[in-house]
Amino acid sequence: MSVVQRDRQFFNLETANTFGIIFDASDEANYNRVSSFVRHIQSKNKIVKAIGFINYKLYPHYIMQKITFDYITLKDINQLMKPVSRHSLEFIQQDFDILIDFNLLRNPILRYISGLSLAKFKIGRFDERDKEIFDFMIQGIEDQNTAVFAKEVLHYLEVLQPKN
Questions:
Q1: What domains lie within the chain, and their CATH numbers?
Q2: What pTM does this model have?
Q3: Cβ neighbours, 10 Å, residue 42
Q4: CB of 49 within 8 A of CB of 19?
Q5: Local confidence band at 151 (pLDDT 50, 70, 90 cut-offs)
Q6: Cβ distance 35 to 48 under 8 Å?
Q7: Which residue in 14, 23, 140, 154 has its CB near the most CB atoms, within 10 A?
Q8: What is the percent of the chain with per-residue pLDDT over 90, rounded to a whole number?
């Protein structure tokens, strides 16, 4: 994946205004944990836009249509396994202050969106292969442990401060 040209900057919970969230919405428990995380960020008067990948052609019963959530399904993926929906292309073009990638299983479709995102500060799970994508990576997170990842992300966003 080629590296996208973007305006890299450091942000924390206090300095950021806009957040982009990427996650796998194929699992109901994961969907609920990310929804809770989004509500928490919104409670801090932040603007949040989330995009979830659903590994089905139709939305599962638990998916609720929300203004801040968009979804891509298998119908929105081309033969090269790249998302081509309007939602995914708009998400990539938004220059969020912070992008948080909850793609703990390295889904290539979500990884593609993260890699091309114009977000200024990108956060994801540690993986040597993703050093060019993320500005800050969190180590020691097990596969699908979204709750621990969310807790760690919030911790670092609250304690890290920009250099003076």
A1: 18-159 (3.40.50)
A2: 0.93
A3: 13
A4: yes
A5: very high
A6: no
A7: 23
A8: 72
Torsion of CA 139, 153, 26, 75, to 10 degrees: -100
Residue that the structure tokens 């050093």 belong to? 131
Q: Are 113 and 83 contacting, i.e. CB atoms less than 8 angstroms apart?
A: yes
Contacts of 67 (CB under 8 A, 6+ apart): none
The DSSP 8-state label assigned to residue 124 in this structure reads E
H or E segment and range at residue 99: strand 98-101
Please give the structure tokens belonging to residue 66: 């929300």
* Residue 123 in tokens: 């956060």
d(CA 90, CA 145): 28
Neighbour order of strands in the sheet with 47-53: 69-72, 47-53, 18-24, 98-101, 121-125, 136-138
Tens-digit pLDDT profile for residues 100-140: 999 988 899 999 999 999 999 999 998 888 888 999 999 87
Structure tokens at 99: 């992008």
77: DSSP letter:
B
